[in-house]
Write a structure and sequence with these properties.
Blueprint: H1 4-20, H2 24-40, H3 44-66, H4 71-94, H5 97-121
Helix pairs in contact: 1-2, 1-4, 2-3, 3-5, 4-5
């Protein structure tokens, strides 16, 4: 049986790899699985982090599905989210609350910027 550190590291690595392929739906699935595992482990910070990640991936996936998004803007957002997601692994394992919050805040802001720019600059798909 894997311990908490192994589960977190494996999940974050999967998400980072899926982000490389722009597979936001896959990232959402992995983060939802991490929510469940974190809940079973009574890891409230893990639940919180995984829920924020799931919401971020779901939002990006929805926008890509509904709008003709600018490829460079999508890549820019993906890169920022990928960098911050990768940085979460150590912070979650070490329970570094301030660093967890900083990474999640950065992810949320990157996704919000992407949403706003998409709404104002992209055409809806028909």
């Amino acid at each position: 049986m894997k311990n908490k550190s192994e589960i977190i590291e494996e999940s974050i690595t999967q998400m980072v790899n899926l982000l490389q392929e722009f597979n936001f739906q896959g990232c959402n699935r992995v983060s939802r699985d991490l929510v469940t595992v974190s809940k079973f482990l009574d890891d409230t910070d893990g639940v919180f982090a995984a829920e924020v990640l799931a919401a971020a991936f779901s939002e990006i996936d929805d926008l890509v599905g509904c709008y003709e998004v600018d490829a460079s803007r999508l890549s820019e957002t993906r890169d920022e989210v990928q960098k911050r997601t990768a940085a979460l692994s150590h912070s979650l394992i070490e329970n570094e609350k301030e660093k967890i919050y900083a990474q999640l805040s950065g992810i949320a802001n990157a996704v919000t910027d992407f949403r706003i720019s998409t709404w104002y600059t992209s055409k809806p798909k028909t």
